[in-house]
Amino acid sequence: QYTFKDLITVGVARGRERELAPHPSLKPQALLRQLVRAALPFGEGTILDPFMGSGTTGVAAAACGRRFLGVEIDPAYYAVACRRMGVMPL
Questions:
Q1: SS3 content of the chain, % helix, strand, coil (to 5)
Q2: 66 in Cβ contact with 40 (< 8 Å)
Q3: How far apart are the first and last CA of the chain?
Q4: CB 34 within 8 A of CB 8
Q5: pTM, rounded to two decimals
Q6: Which tens digit of pLDDT belongs to each residue from 59-79?
């Protein structure tokens, strides 16, 4: 049996998060904010999410003051992501 001491433990996205972003694989903000900070610890660079879904990573990046670029093929999820991030769809 292996014990991993470097795991990030968070709950599932619930309540208001789920209401704002009805996506089948929605990740909780608590997790994504930690990952965004870990990916760009000095705040330099851009977070890229090539499968943006409902935009949770983009919302986390904005909350952490990081730049973000997301791509989503599904127009419905793209619209949800834009709404959540407060940007106009292209």
A1: 40, 10, 50
A2: yes
A3: 49
A4: yes
A5: 0.84
A6: 999 999 999 999 999 999 999
Identify which of 68, 71, 61, 77 has the alpha carbon closest to the alpha carbon of residue 20.
77
Judged on CB neighbours under 10 Å (0-12, 13-18, 19+), 8 is exposed
CA triplet 75, 48, 53: central angle to 5 degrees? 30
The closest of 66, 59, 4 to 29, measured between CA atoms, is 59
Interatomic CA distance for residues 43 and 40, integer angstroms: 5
Residues found in the chain: 90
* 69 Cβ neighbours under 8 A, 6+ residues apart: 46, 47, 48, 49
- The distance of Cα 21 from the centroid of its chain, to the nearest Å, equals 11
Match 């660079």 to its residue by tokens.
Answer: 45
Q: What is the mean pLDDT of the chain?
A: 90
Amino acid identity of 48? L
